Amino acid sequence: MSAQGIVVQPGQGPVSSFTPGRSIVLKLLGGETGDSIMVFEETVPAGTKSKFHLDHDSDEVAYVLSGEITFKIGDDVTVDDPGTCAFMPGRAPARKPDGCCFSILRPRRAG
Questions:
Q1: 27-60 confidence digits (pLDDT tens)
Q2: Contact at 8 Å (CB) between 63 and 84?
Q3: Which residues of 5-32 are buried (b: 16+ CB within 10 A; e: fewer)?
Q4: Nearest Cα to 14, choosing from 28, 29, 26?
Q5: Radius of gyration of the chain (CA)
């Protein structure tokens, strides 16, 4: 299937809710983009702790819209503010990237 241009307006996209206050809005899915990219917007409550994870199947790009987030990439740990863009390469040995996930992060600030 070849991909066609797509525009997803604010407030559009399927929503998946997790723990209270934490949700993901799926903006673009692999099937819509010829399996080249997936984009989602994640909202998390202030102070949310999450395990660092490793994506073996794809590279990931994240852009922080609001709040503060901690990235761990390799051995480097940074605490970042809105406007930060991070690239996290997949780590599977002898891996050819199958696609990219672009995360739009919107952490909520306390209060």
A1: 888 788 877 778 888 888 777 776 666 666 677 7
A2: yes
A3: eeeeeeeebeeeeeeeeebbbbbbebeb
A4: 26
A5: 15
